[in-house]
Amino acid sequence: MVRAGSVGTHLPASGWDIFGDLRKMNKRQLYYQVLNFAMIVSSALMIWKGLIVLTGSESPIVVVLSGSMEPAFHRGDLLFLTNFREDPIRAGEIVVFKVEGRDIPIVHRVIKVHEKFLPYVGMVTIIMNDYPKFKYALLAVMGAYVLLKRES
Length: 152
Hints:
3 domains; two-stranded antiparallel ribbon; 4 helices
């Protein structure tokens, strides 16, 4: 006799019944699946570390995330990076650098190289970012100068 409105625990026999498949799987098969997954993950990590050693780069493969490199590279392109050259950087070359506080390396094309254009002038910005008190003191001095300076 079948009651109307009764709730059964039987799930349909389909390919999407993952938990049912896991319940049917014996322990040996489960261990085998876990071991296979661990081998795939460890193989990927070994390949990644091997590429780091072979290329001399912390990030041997990067993905172009923006359209700023077009038409040479488009969004989604993979770049294979090496770090072998000791030659100076020239215009037109592709460079990759890391910014402190960001995990993703920045990829750009060199447009122009300035060899004698006020070296270390950017250190003021770096010091102001690293030492906020210095920034506020500098702003206070500049503000006082503007307020106290008399026009001649």
